[in-house]
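Worked example 2:
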Amino acid sequence: MKQKEGLPEATELTPRFEFNPKNGIDNPALSLAEDSEPEGTVQVRFCFLKKEEGESFGFWLRQEAGNSGHLIRQVKPGGLAHRKGLREGDRILEVNREYVDDMEHLRVVWKIRSSGMQILLTILDGNAYSLAKALGRNLIQLLPSYHRPRLCCVAKDQNGFGFAVSAPEGVKGVFRVSVVSHGPADQAGVPDGAWLLELNGMSVKNWTYARLSKKLKQSSSPMGLLVIDAESEEFYRQHNIKITASLADNLWLPFEVRKLQMTRGPDGYGFLLKEEECGSGKKGQFLRELDAGLPAEKAGMRDGDQLLGVNGESVEGLSHHRMVSKILADSKRVTLLVIDSEGSQFFDLVGLSPLVFYDNQDALPGMPDTRGSSSSNMLQESCLSTFAPCPPDMDLPCHAWLPRDGSQDFSKEGQDGLSQPF
């Protein structure tokens, strides 16, 4: 088997339909009214974008009156998106292999923003998109039907993890998984005969069988496996699509991001926000010391939950003080996105943000919701806010110093405009 290769700037997919003119009609434009096929081919492209620290993806995403779909606009000349083949007027059909053309614009923005430093976009050029829409084509039929990779959390039992790996002699990075029926791997959703792509967030592409065996023996429980079936692996490889955990189907994972909506009571919210070190060495913000009967406990908060988002906005990577400021931006209510301690440990292990798989169906704060509006929907990349200063200590109880009389101003700055930069 050939080694998997990186993604070129734009990869074209074999079209699902071509123009077949009816007898006597030479001009394809004349056939539109008679619902004939478009001239030439419809090309779906895959664009894999991986940005460096401090770099943007280099494009704006728009929703415009008179133009359906999620439009690529203002592609920065020489920027990442431009170098990888994105062009003005392109439409995004998929984000990380998830179909988004019929999805609300703000949800698509969330998926791109929460994807982290890299993202795979499935693109259709503007003219082909408009023509397909005019002909009433089902755009899903243009997309590949192969499976996404699967991310699995395998917990060890008394007999082990319930799988074995095999590899061709002398070949690096090619490992097939054999799963014991009804064993831990089987119950975790690992398909028998799948190819192993990652172990605990580490690519096995260049590993020898001996190295993999050593890593498996050293692995604690649970372990994270990124796997894919042979047919789908071949498709991605032939189209030079880099397979990453962010593309994975996470339906088999036992963890989920939870939304907690709270209204402040007379004694505050009733929890402590504490900065702690994760297993990987990265710092995270965790919720501790819940007060019985106060809003946090009533909303379903659990001791050890990790804080991921505040008011619909990701706060991963922000300082402790910035997070506290965001919680206090509204003195009366707050919405938090959290994951339990087990989920936090697993995603830290595989090096992935839990928000990659979270589908935020709410409009993001500071962004106009223009559903039903005839004007363009332009979104800002971040919701800039002004906050009052925070106390200096690192363990800040969100019930102890929140202003009781609401006299402090934690107002959001208004944002105008009709586009979303990435």
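Residues 1-40, 363-422 have pLDDT under 50 and may be disordered. The chain is about 15% helix and 25% strand.
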